[in-house]
């Protein structure tokens, strides 16, 4: 189980003038009061319970080893945005940590439509929202009107038309064994006409093929021309959400016992890093000693 996970979301402000604002912060440090701030879904009846716990790190020290990771081959951090009512998963591979220690996850979204994913306060991925998610259809598409011309020669090599099969090329594949001798006791009348057994002909050269030369008519590989996609409309506000002051946890666990702590939504990536340092940064040391130390 991941012992203690932290989720931080920093939505950076448009200018340096904007003040740091914390929209949401939860550290579960006031006893049972968190219950008044968190709502458990009643959508289905078989949900597991959320409980407040300092964390034993394992339900069963032997059985529950390792983090709860969906599919050993995947180990992916799923960064998903809802864009115009549809969920879009990042199309880059962000590897998650698969040890048993506490980790800090941060997502930074900037008003210039760039983003950054940090794990343990270190950048693991960054780029452009439009490039790394399929929010918008592609800018360019293959021109449906364009077709490879019939006479387009895309053969790089051709058989040399001047190469001729040597006169003495054709030899039978099998020949009567020149060393075979008609047995002395062969009786033509009784046994029929004697024929030597066939053997592979050492002079047989196989099927003749002309050598290959560069095709003088070669035009190169045909590249399908692209046109602007009529379906594409640029959106300079992919990053923008009208309301982001709420965090919901939608968990499907293979092994129970994952612990989450210290949620933060702010417009200041620096504040996010600082809070990360103050929370995860301080307690991560304790997870190394697991049960022995209480921090
Ligand atoms: C967080 O901690 C790291 C490592 O000690 C340090 O380099 C960094 O400056 C800290 N960040 C902030 C915002 O205090």
From TrEMBL:
Listed Pfam families: Calreticulin
Major localisation: other
GO process terms (BP): ERAD pathway; protein folding
Biased composition range(s): Basic and acidic residues: 140-184
Annotated compartments: Cell surface; Cytoplasm, Cytosol; Cytoplasmic vesicle, Secretory vesicle, Cortical granule; Endoplasmic reticulum lumen
Cellular component, GO annotation: cell surface; cortical granule; cytosol; endoplasmic reticulum membrane; sarcoplasmic reticulum lumen
PANTHER family named among the record's database cross-references: CALRETICULIN, CALRETICULIN AND CALNEXIN
Family (UniProt): Belongs to the calreticulin family.
Name of protein: Calreticulin
């Amino acid at each position: 189980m991941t012992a203690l996970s932290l989720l931080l979301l920093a939505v950076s402000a448009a200018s340096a003038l904007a003040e740091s604002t914390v929209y949401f912060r939860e550290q579960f440090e006031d006893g049972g009061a968190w219950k008044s701030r968190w709502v458990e879904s009643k959508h289905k009846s078989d949900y597991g319970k959320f409980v407040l716990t300092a964390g034993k790190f394992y339900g069963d020290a032997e059985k529950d080893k390792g983090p709860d990771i969906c599919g050993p081959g995947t180990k992916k951090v799923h960064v998903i945005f809802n864009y115009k009512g549809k969920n879009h998963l990042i199309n880059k591979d962000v590897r998650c940590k698969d040890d048993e220690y506490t980790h800090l996850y941060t997502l930074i979204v900037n008003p210039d439509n760039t983003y950054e994913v940090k794990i343990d306060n270190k950048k693991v991925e960054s780029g452009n929202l439009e490039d790394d998610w399929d929010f918008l259809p592609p800018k360019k598409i293959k021109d449906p009107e364009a077709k490879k011309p019939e006479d387009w020669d895309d053969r790089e090599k051709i058989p040399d038309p001047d190469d001729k099969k040597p006169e003495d090329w054709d030899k039978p594949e099998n020949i009567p064994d020149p060393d075979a001798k008609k047995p002395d006791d062969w009786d033509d009348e009784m046994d029929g006409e004697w024929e030597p057994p066939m053997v592979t002909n050492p002079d047989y050269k196989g099927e003749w093929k002309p050598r290959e030369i560069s095709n003088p008519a070669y035009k190169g590989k045909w590249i399908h021309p692209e046109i602007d996609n009529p379906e594409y409309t640029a959106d300079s506000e992919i990053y923008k959400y009208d309301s982001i002051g709420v965090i919901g946890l939608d968990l499907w666990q293979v092994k129970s016992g994952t612990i989450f702590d210290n949620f933060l939504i702010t417009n200041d990536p620096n504040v996010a890093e600082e809070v990360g340092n103050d929370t995860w940064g301080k307690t991560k040391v304790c997870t190394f000693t697991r049960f022995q130390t209480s921090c």
